[in-house]
Amino acid sequence: MANVNELKTIEQLNEALDHTAQKPLLVFKHSTRCPISAGAYQQFQSYLNEQPSEDVDYSLIYVVENRDVSLAAADTLHVKHESPQVILIKDGAPVWDTSHSRITASALREALS
Hints:
Elements (H helix, E strand, L loop, with lengths): L3 E3 L3 H10 L5 E6 L4 H15 L7 E6 L4 H11 L7 E6 L2 E7 L5 H8 L1
Parallel strand pairs: 1-3, 2-3
Antiparallel strand pairs: 2-4, 4-5
């Protein structure tokens, strides 16, 4: 399983975004209060438990517990805030994102291959 770093501060978010100049980053924005997010999180975990791309870093933002980080990600990346949501970032810019029931293990495999 790939390592997933939780982003709890805006500083951690900014460091992770800076690192995308070296390696792409997939951010999963998760709400612990939403059943749709729970299903998307299971799909994310399923992808990570199979054969996740080693060419990508993985991060998690809990949108309720770390709302400031979640909103900063949306603002910095100019991506409408949604939850659940995944955003693939390269060179500090989003190159792919999707949300809700479109977050599936197969969609992640396709986007990250």
